[in-house]
Structures are given as C-alpha cells and as structure tokens.
Specification:
By secondary structure, the chain is an all-alpha fold. The chain is 70% helix and 1% strand. It has one domain: Farnesyl Diphosphate Synthase, CATH 1.10.600. The longest helix has 25 residues, at 165-189. The two termini are 22 Å apart. This is Prenyl transferase.
Amino acid sequence: MYKYLGLPVKSVKKELDQLNHNLNKMIAADNPILYSAAERIFIAGGKRIRPIVILNTAKFISIDKTISTEQKRLAEITEIIHTASLVHDDIIDNCDTRRGVNTVHSVFNNKIAVLAGDFLFAQSSWYLANLNNLSVVKTISKIITDFAEGEIKQGTKSFDNNISMDEYTEKSFYKTASLIACSCKATVLLSEFSVSRDKHFYLYGKHIGLAFQIIDDILDIISTSKELGKPAGLDFKNGNLTASLIFTLNKKQKLYKLINQEFQFKDDVNEAINMIKQTNSIHKAKDLAIEHIQLAIQIVKKQHSSNKNGIDLISICYYILNRFN
C-alpha cells in the first residue's frame, strides 16, 4: 500500500505507478528465497518520497516538462538503494517490524537478510551502470559509501553523551541526506538542459534530507509504535542519540546516567523521553529542521520563481515538516 497522502504526486502519478510496477521486475532473482526476502520490504509499501522528489525535480528542470527514460530509471534505482539500506539497518538496529510488517531478518534470518540487502545493492549498481553516464555513476556510487560511513559514525558514537550537534548532523547526512542530495544532482546531470544547476539541486536534496531525518528522530520520541510501524524509542535503545536528546543534555543531568548505563532498565527510555518533553528541546529540534526547509525553499525559488513545478518541490518541503503534526 502506497501512502501518498499529502505528497505532490498528481503531476507524476503515471510515472510513479510505472515505477511501482517496474520495481518487482528489477529485483527478480533466480533463487526463490533471495527474491522473497528482497521483495518483502517492497510489499510493505511506503511513501516513495525519494522517487517523488526525483520525478518532480526532473519535471521542474525540463523545458517541455517531460521526464526522460533515464530519469525514471534513476528514480527506481534510488528506491532500490534506499530499500537495501533499510534491510541492513533493521539488522543493525535489531528492529523486528518496519512499516507495520515483520522485517526480512525476523522472517528469515540475519544471513539471508544481509544477502538480500547485498543483492539489492548489486541490482541497483547494474541498472546504474546501464545508464551509461559516468558522472551519474560516480554521483550515485558515493551514496553507498556514505551509508557505510554513516553506520560507522553512528556506531562509534553509540551511547556517547559527548556527541555534538555537528556530529549528529554529519551522521544524518551520511545516513539519509546523501541519498536525496546525490539523487537530485544526478537527475540534473541526466538532463541536457540543466547541467549547470546540479550543485543547486544537490543542496536542495541535502537540506530536505537533513530535515527529514531530524523530524524522523522527533517522531521516534513522540509517536507510538503503531503510528511509526516500528518500535518507538528505538533510537535510544540502540544508543543513537538524536537532536532532541542532545539539546536536553545540559538541562537534565540524570540523562548522563541513563546514557552511561545504556538504558538497560525497563523504564529508562521512557524516563529519558519524559525528561526531553519537560524541556523545549523537541521544539528546538523542529526549529533546526525548519531552518533546513527554509534553505531548500529558497533554492527552488531562486531557480525559477514562476515555474509551476516548483510548487511541487516546495510542497515536498512542507510535507516533511507536517509529518511532525
């Protein structure tokens, strides 16, 4: 089930429907277990935010408002890369549900899940190579490197109460924003009309990606497991200290103790969340996301203030913030 509510899909609905149809073909595998594992997370649906960003960007930069075959393929490749990263993330985070359904490793085992994630990365690389655009290959390949870098940075800062906001932002870029930023840049590189604008759209993708991650981390604190489709408070349980907690550290000294003991007791995570809610830290984290959204909106407006498709790119920005409400 694809949850497009609130997302600007009207102008790209045909391409999005084709993308959903093509994804199953693109992940086909000879081994039935591998295919079943790789397919599982696609069954859960999702919002398809990354393809929606790419398809709307492609229309925005096109003189005749068309999306090329290569740009459509890029949207599919990006969603496969994102899905592969989720399969691996769920293993690392020991997350048993995703989008309300059981994760790949909980249905099969860690070994099958790792292989399924690797298979998806391999498939995306094969289709990427077939775009026959070296600049795009270099740009998208950087994403997979950044994923690994982000996981390492998150791992080395696990339960580290000295983590700075800059370190949190850097990790968020590697784990989330890099994919959107590089995909937006690659979309422009695949257009013969707008090559000189690739840096601007890279920054657009970077800022909405960072805002997305900040809001995602807030939702992990304020939402229920049912609303999230995965266990609430999972970030803290896994030692992932996010913006709201970092803002709270100097206001609630007991947080240091809870972090040092790695939230090992049953009520530790709930106690930490309650401390955060007693401060203005969630509001400060949202303000941080708003700053990134404002920067992204300014980029779109400077590119072409009268372009109707710019409204869709701006709507994506507001959608990211409204996930908070």
